[in-house]
Amino acid sequence: MTQVFLGMPAGGLGNLVETEPFPAAAHRELGNTQMRKNLRHATHTIRDKRLRVVGELPDWEQLRDAGSAIKNSAMFNLEERLLEFEKNFTARGGVVHWARDADEANTIVRDLIRETGSTEVVKVKSMATQEIGLNEYLETQGIEAFETDLAELIVQLGHDKPSHILVPAIHKNRTEVRDIFLKEMPDVDPALTDEPAKLAEAARKHLRAKFLSAKVAISGANFALADTGTLGVVESEGNGRMCLTLPETLITVMGIEKVLPHTDDIEVMMQLLPRSSTGERMNPYTSMWTGVTEDDGPQNVHIVLLDNGRSRVLSDSFGRSALNCIRCSACMNVCPVYERTGGHAYGSTYPGPIGAILSPLMTGIEVEKNNSLPYASSLCGACFDACPVKINIPEILVHLRGEDVDSQRDKHKIPTQMDLLMKGGSWVLGKGKNMKLVEKALPLGRLAAGKNKKIKKLPGIAAGWTQSRDIPAPPAQSFRDWWSAEKESK
Amino acid sequence: MSAKDEILGRIRTALADAPQAPEVPRGYRTSSELDEEALIELLVDRLVDYKAGVDVIEESQIPQLVADKLAGASSVVTPQGLNPQWLSALPGTIARHVDAPGDRRSVAELDAISAVVTSSAVSIAESGTIILDGEPDQGRRAISLVPDHHVCIVPVSTVVQLLPEAMPRLTITRPLTWISGPSATSDIELERVEGVHGPRTLDVLLVRGM
What we know:
By secondary structure, chain A is α/β, with parallel strands linked by helices. Chain A contains 23 helices and twelve strands.
């Protein structure tokens, strides 16, 4: 008998949730003035670079259209594409594993490492393994994971959390990085300066022996080609090449949404991604491998295909385009909210505008404090303009705010202040007669404003509005009264 | 139920509204109008921007230029299929290693070698990208990764302007390495710095008539 799955797909586990409401987290992070300065400097640098290299391409908008359609077509036929990928990857000597959630993925990876007899692994920066909390899990299982990307290394050595998906240590400036290296790298030159080139060199020395002796590597993947079974990793430093080439065993953990239908699709994605992420015409290194190549690179090659809430995102017909995300980070680099609060305020592995939709979509809006994330935006739309695959983030934010309001209503049963306000609002604005009636209360407002003509504090939930601004006193005459007086006098 | 069956079942349920996959509009540029000189100029500009060394030369100059680039090296590794003529001007003081099937250089050996010379498969001028595909004149991925200095031969006939023009020339299932300048990072303050784990020096010899 074939089993049929019914109901809402399960939400994602792992590092996807806020543990306190965004406004509280943001308020604390805003107090970190050094971080704000660092973020402002970094996001503005990258914005300018991105605009320059995007402006060079006369067909940028056509590439965005193609990128968006490629991802949509992949998602709308996801089952077929995944099966096709599995068939091709397997035919070339790779082994495919499927993981429903973070826990299952972690266990699969642990077992694969144990089979090799190794107790340490080198890692290429990967959002998926960050999301499932793989490093922390492996540590509890007696396996040490070494991050090899410079920014991940800074975060790991600093016992810190990533705050950006591309540049996890964006909240640290060069001097702070040097201080971490001096404190945490056992073999570091005590005369190390804060020159970025010197810091990069220190990382090279620190990791060199690890690369050359590692037996097992763990990576993510930027894409998987269904028609050939090919995987690709996009990087800059060469740590990716080291991990993907030198060890005997390579384990890749990849979200199921990373599959692309056709080989030709990379001609679009590889124009969109580097320009949108680091503002470069092309990133220094991209590696592609298809299963096992005899006599070249790892001979024991695995991939873990991870759901962890992605099918849940897919089930939201309005929000599913969030799965089109190629993790370039352009949206956070242009976001006025992210620039000020930083990535930690979002709680989840995925910060910024994309995180504000992806995290609640993956877990469900009702999980922990993720319902505050869709409000972490002024809806200015800069993220939509910057998105290389045209994810309409503001529209999905508004959609999720609606979902949140609905889920709150279901929880409370009795009408909330917001419900009453909205009801009142629709009565007032629904008919001219009603509006006129309410306008008779204008003098009351003037009275409340007092001599300095400002209302400083509104009651109830409206107090949020006056928390950081005053309301000017209402005018003596309403527009409608002025208009009828104007007409009569003519 | 296996994890695979359950995930595929979830996907089926999620797509119960049967959204129609759109046609992919491929209105972006797919062919170049640049002549050979303009193409060379564009590629050189991009490579210099990445802080790679680049010389535009004739085929007959390869041995001399390779020797010039390796002047400071104590040893060099080449893939078995590299034209031996290209190393003919190297002084005897530079130790030569060949990485060949059945006679591989170990990772530790590669780490002790100062430089590598390879050919390349396809290059993209617009983005300054050189693609290696593991053919015998380029060798295993490890040899062009571990030594700190990479001298790469790029025949002009293998250069295209646009990425979409490079695609038909690639066999995607070969192990591919796309190289755009020497190893670099933007991880500190989002400013690019050259030289991390991959070769810190990249010298490109762009060869006319080849």
